[in-house]
L-type lectin-like domain-containing protein
Amino acid sequence: MLIHLLLAVVNCQPNDAPLFDDPLIKSTHELQAFSFQPPYVEDSLRNRWWKFGGDAFVNVNEYIRLTRDTQSQSGWLWSNTPMYYSSWIVEFEFKVQHEGALSGDGFAFWVTKEKEIQGPVFGSKDNFEGLGIFFDTYANSRVRHSYPYVMAMMGDGKTSYDHDFDGNSVELGGCSHDFRNQENPTRARLELTSVHDPSQWIQCFKIEQKIPLNYFLGFTAATGGVSSKHDLIYTKTYAVTLEKSGEENRQKSYASSSDNKFDTSNQYNKPPVTEKKGTSGVQMFIYLVLIAIVAYVGFVIYRTSQQKSNKRF
Ligand SMILES: [Ca+2]
């Protein structure tokens, strides 16, 4: 299934409520499994839905810091649960601050098959499968546009990001946006749904790509010879039901989940949702598919036997 991706980056006041003023959106509900906000951790000093590692650490009242403003850092934060909705919106606020003249390398937002593997692409592995959105603050190659630069890459598991050339050859879309050393956090919104462009936002890019279900959401950041503090303030993720095709999207999502052998019973913590999930509708959809397959197999057997009997006589 082809999906529109849209990223908007704005400088904004902290804690503004998210706006979904699109008439095509029938309803949204927040997915707790893909959201976080202060104090980030529970009594056990862990987060039930997210895991962090490398050089990342939590300041419970203010931020999750992926890297400090020192050289050769690498930190990560990944969702425990894979995303099994096909239409969703994620919004996150972040701050990138540095004291030296230069900042680097940047951070990434991921929707990928694998997680928690450190590497050279903003702290995560190269040759990844899935979507990477890179908030690149350092020009490693000849400058083609102003920095910081935000860009998207769709990884097929074989193609390299090529850090030394800032991913120039694999860029699907991007924009320049100065989010460094801003007084307020910068907010980004990524929409994996077919709604129109939000009016209050600056559109960074819009591309059409297929993103498989059951990929993990993550953030990683790295510093090299130059450095920055890469801080995440909050993330809120919403499942979206569209006006006309919402129920259809929901059913496709669940049907594809079973195709991918997603085990909702024990392999992962299933995220809580506030809406009724329409199980009977999903069952009906699966029954219809099974009936269609049975009918087709019956037709093939019938035609084969007819052809054989035609040859015989
Ligand atoms: Ca770079």
